[in-house]
Design goal:
It is a single chain. The strands form 4 sheets. The chain has a 5-stranded mixed beta sheet. A hairpin with a 2-residue loop joins β9 and β10 (about 550-560). The protein has 20 helices and 13 strands. The chain is α+β, with helices and mostly antiparallel strands. The protein has helices spanning about 5-30, 35-55, 60-70, 70-85, 95-100, 100-120, 140-165, 165-185, 210-220, 225-255, 260-265, 265-295, 305-315, 320-335, 380-440, 450-470, 485-490, 515-535, 570-575, 590-600, and strands spanning about 120-125, 130-135, 340, 355-365, 365-370, 480-485, 500-505, 510-515, 540-550, 550-560, 600-605, 615-620, 625. α2 (about 35-55) runs antiparallel to α3 (about 60-70), α6 runs antiparallel to α7 and α8 packs antiparallel against α9.
């Protein structure tokens, strides 16, 4: 084949490869904006290769314009390098500044190109090797030096990123350096004619490989489809080269005979050569396939059996902790590395932090799955994680629904139990009060002292029955407007305080919308408890402070009686039958808690208000100040 024709053909192939790569990268830059600069580089390379074709085809002016636009190639590549490096760990201020002001570099490059076009920068001369070649001179060398300087700067940026990045990003930068060195080796002969060297540029015949290797070095760790395509392409390339080698061998043997002599070759020999080709092809297929798998990341593989196993195992989990542990175990076993699965109800339960995480959470009523720390993984491994995450999200939704149904059933059983307890308490109260009435009437004939003791115990039993009815029954609230100051004064007067000092601080006219009978029960229980501990204590004081805080009425009931047992938590204090008071039923504070909950209020025990005993009540917003 004529060498000039071969050169022209390779330039056309290089231009086509670069153009296809540029279009493909531009399409994918919608999702990965980093690739936009590399797409521009590919487009300019396609035009640069066409410039050589135009020169050979005696269109020197058009070829001159395209070749002198050479500085745009490294400008686009520098833009790509800045965006590629300024990710993840590398946040250098100068990188951000350079990327923000990249427009000025494009302006400077366009200015250099325009000057090269308008000034004496190069000519097309006759060449023995190529027929016609483009030669730089005068201002053309400035164009060439500017191009080289931008290329060096772009690779310096990549080298800076290589120092800080790890894993696949670092390997991608190494691949770009190797591809850049290969491209420099192939493109160097273009300047030989400018220095008086009329040599045929043999390395440029391999130029189509440069854009392919460069782009593949960038995206091989990011796109699974690229690796699958490269796997097949490498296999077919090696097999094609092997077949061409055999054809060359046949040609070398029969070349001196020509086609006529080849036609006279006995049929058994042709069959022998064909069989040899088939045998060599079959013998080389597996080694070549393994070589391709070693050079190309094939990625992890998924099959239906594995997905079915995952779905079945995840579906057997009955709680969040079990689902989190099982999911982590399944994915770690599939990927041969530790993976941590974080669920909302099972977070913080892992002793060691894993680099790879899958986090599930709900957003607007839907389960979302995030992959954390997977950017450095190969596309195949990320695909496995994405498929597993999809199954995990579905399992989380099913488990949440199952737990909600179980909780609803539990609440239903609890409500049914309360209804049954209320009915039982009412029945017991009726059955107990009858014999208590008989005992009360029978005690009328005994002496006064014994009758007093009997009546005292009967009152205690009656109070216990009343408390049981209040606690176990359903509260029906009858709301009305209550003025707190006269209510509290009247309730305090119902007790025999003896020498206890009473303090009442209530803003005049403060109103509360609530059930008056139930609110009275709240304060009567609190005052009764305080009275039981204060009557026999010197300098005893009961203080009631009421204040309007925002839209909440705050009532604080203090006394300087004995401090409560520190072993009692606030939650335990309001449980039924927890009492430290002699003769108490253990239901007083539990009833207070039920009434406050029915009013959507709050009650808490405080020890930080300067009193040994303080109860704070917060009533809801539906109040106003008269």
């Amino acid at each position: 084949m004529d060498l000039i024709l071969a050169f022209e053909l390779m330039m056309l192939v290089s231009s086509g490869c670069a153009a296809l790569m540029s279009g493909w990268l531009w399409w994918h830059s919608r999702y990965q904006q980093t690739l936009a600069g590399l797409a521009g580089f590919g487009a300019m390379m396609a035009l640069w290769c066409l410039g050589h074709v135009f020169v050979i085809h005696d269109q020197p002016e058009l070829g001159r314009y395209l070749l002198l636009a050479n500085p745009l190639m490294p400008t686009f590549f520098l833009h790509f390098a800045l965006r590629f490096v300024e990710q993840d760990q590398v946040k250098a201020p100068w990188l951000s500044w350079a990327r923000r002001h990249i427009g000025w570099l494009y302006f400077l490059t366009a200015l250099v190109v325009l000057l090269s076009w308008s000034l004496d920068a190069g000519d097309v001369l006759q060449s023995i090797a190529l027929g016609q070649v483009f030669v730089f001179h005068s201002y053309g060398f400035l164009n060439l030096l500017y191009t080289v300087a931008l290329g060096i700067l772009a690779h310096a940026v990549l080298w800076y990123g290589w120092r800080y990045h790890q894993g696949n990003k670092k390997r991608s930068i190494v691949a770009m350096f190797l591809a850049g060195g290969w491209g420099l080796l192939l493109a160097t002969p273009v300047v030989f004619p400018s220095f008086g060297l009329d040599w045929f540029p043999y390395p440029m015949l391999l130029l189509p490989s440069y854009p392919v290797l460069l782009v593949y070095g960038v995206v091989r760790y990011q796109m699974l489809a690229v690796n699958a395509l490269a796997n097949r392409a490498l296999l077919w390339l090696v097999m094609s080269l092997l077949l061409l080698l055999l054809m060359a061998l046949v040609s070398s043997i029969f070349g001196q005979l020509g086609m006529k002599a080849l036609a006279n070759v006995p049929g058994w020999q042709l069959w022998l050569y064909s069989s040899l080709v088939l045998l060599l092809t079959a013998a080389c297929y597996r080694p070549v396939a393994k070589l391709a798998e070693r050079l190309i990341y094939p990625g992890a593989t998924l099959d239906q059996a594995l997905i079915n196993t995952w779905r079945q195992q995840l579906g057997l989990c009955q709680n969040w902790l079990g689902l989190s542990e099982k999911a982590s175990e399944l994915l770690s076993a599939a990927l041969k590395q530790n993976v941590q699965v974080e669920l909302p109800a099972a977070s913080g339960l892992f002793a060691s932090e894993s680099q790879l995480k899958i986090r599930c959470y709900t957003q607007q009523g839907r389960w979302q799955v995030d992959l954390l720390g997977w950017d450095d993984m190969t596309p195949g491994i990320r695909l496995v994680a994405q498929v597993f995450g999809s199954l995990l999200g579905s399992s989380c939704e099913l488990l949440a629904q199952s737990l909600q149904l179980a909780e609803a059933e539990k609440q239903q059983l609890s409500q049914q139990h309360l209804v049954e307890m209320g009915a039982l308490a009412a029945s017991m109260a009726h059955e107990l009060r009858n014999p208590l009435n008989i005992i009360s009437m029978a005690s009328a004939g005994v002496d006064a002292e014994l009758r007093g003791h009997i009546q005292q115990q009967l009152k205690r039993a009656d109070r216990l029955i009343s408390d049981m009815l209040v606690y176990s029954g359903r509260l029906q609230l009858q709301y009305s407007q209550i003025e707190l100051e006269p209510l509290l004064q009247s309730l305090l007067q119902q007790f025999d305080w003896q020498q206890v000092k009473l303090e009442l601080k209530v803003p005049s006219g403060l109103m509360l919308r609530a059930d008056q009978h139930r609110v009275q029960q709240v304060f009567l229980n609190l005052f009764d408890n305080a009275n039981a501990f204060l009557r026999n204590q010197a300098d005893a004081t009961l203080s009631v402070e009421v204040a309007l805080v925002g839209d909440v009425i705050r009532v604080q009931v203090h006394n300087n009686g004995p401090a409560l047992d520190l072993s009692l938590t606030t939650e335990q204090l309001f449980r039924p039958f927890i009492s430290k008071r002699s003769g108490g039923s253990g239901l007083g504070l539990a009833i207070v808690k039920r009434i406050m909950d029915a009013h959507q209020g709050q009650i808490s025990f405080r020890t930080d208000l300067g009193w040994p005993v303080s109860f704070e009540l917060l009533f809801p917003k539906d109040i106003h100040h008269v």
